[in-house]
Amino acid sequence: MSITPILQFGTSRFLQAHADLFLSEAMPGARPVTVVQTSGDPSRTKRLHAMAEGYEVQVRGIEDGQQVDRVSHVDSIARGLTFAPDMAEIARIAAEEAQVILSNTADAGFNPRPEDTGATLDPAMSYPAKLAHLLRGRFEAGGQAPQVMPTELVQDNGAALKGLVLDVAQGMDKPYRDWLTEEVVWVNSLVDRIVSEPLDPAGAVAEPYALWAIEQAKGVTLPCDHASVQMVPDLGLIERKKLFVLNLGHTWLASRWLEDGQNPDFVREIMAESDLAGALRALYDEEVRPGFTAAGEDARLDDYIAVTLDRFANPFLDHRIADIAQNHGEKLRRRIGAFVDWARANGDDTPKPRLEAALKGEDA
What does the pLDDT read at residue 267? Predict the structure, then answer.
């Protein structure tokens, strides 16, 4: 088995159609990844083996205004391991091979567990606790500090994971804790791609748009050379575009959907209705753009809006408005209310009747 410089925790369809696909396209035939299944779910064993054999990602949607439907073969994964039975081999790879540790461990992946206080590595531990013990093995072996790259949807995810690992390591030797703090490279990143459904036994259906934004910092390097993988000086700029354009647009459409009797079912159906699609475009042009302009953050905003509208109109994506409308009050505050406050704080005093109507639950 070849040496794999990337150790990946998680077998999600998102990673299959995101990082693993990018690595395959950037390094064809190199197979740099060992994937670890952390859940122990026996139903995923078939997927794990299929990932190592190579799988397909079907990319379907609208790109540059044109409908696309293409298939990419992914061969970046050299082997798949399951944490409990393969723990010794995983520990060896972490100590001897891994230069990059990549993860996407689902929403609960960072949550502490009672087993985290154990003195030795335990498959029942949370991901941060597992990582604390695995990295200790690398430190004790004298290995070079790796780059840790979480892709979980947590703000400042690298810093958050670092803090959790250090919490677990409190009772460990000080030289190791210093190494974790000063030598290991903890990477903040933001990922974005809608991966709408899995393929069996492995693979996925995904939209054309994809982004892996990695925050520039000392020691941080890109995992591969790919158009969708970008080093950026400030993730905040990208986070605001995502929150105040894509997420805001979704929530505004959900407000209209609730007002109009909860019909139709899917975002793509709304975008096929010229009146509502036109109203969304006007919202972006007349109410959202001035806020970004006032903040000095309107560079390439029109491109991002155009891509967002293409994503909403994806004819292959069954994105239910009812799902977007869940926790609607909180989303109104975090997406629309927060945008209006941010825009006003930056000196934008232009009228925002549609947004304010959504906040009041009234028809614009």
Answer: 93
DSSP code at position 117? G
Note whether 179 and 34 are same-domain residues: yes
pLDDT at 363 over 60: no
Give the span between the Cα atoms of 15 and 211, in whole angstroms: 12
Residue 62 near residue 313, CB atoms below 8 Å: yes
User: How far, rounded to the nearest angstrom, does the alpha carbon of residue 22 sit from its chain's CA centroid?
Assistant: 14
Place of tokens 């990337």: 6
Total domains in the chain come to 2
Q: Which tokens is 112 given?
A: 């502490």
Contact in structure between 257 and 263 (CB atoms under 8 Å): yes
162 within a domain of the structure (yes/no): yes
> Do 283 and 194 reside in the same domain of the chain?
no
Range of the domain at 80: 6-233
Q: Which residues contact 159 (CB under 8 A, 6 or more apart)?
A: 186, 188
Three-state DSSP class for residue 68:
strand
pLDDT per residue as tens digits for the range 253-272: 999 999 888 788 899 998 99
Asked whether residue 319 carries a pLDDT value surpassing 50, the answer given is yes
Q: Are residues 26 and 123 in the same domain?
A: yes
Cis, bond preceding 201 (omega within 30 deg of 0)? yes
- Cα distance between residue 26 and residue 309, in whole Å: 28
> Distance between CA atoms of 28 and 54, rounded to whole angstroms?
12
**Same domain, yes or no, for 101 and 171?**
yes
| pTM for the predicted model, two decimal places | 0.90
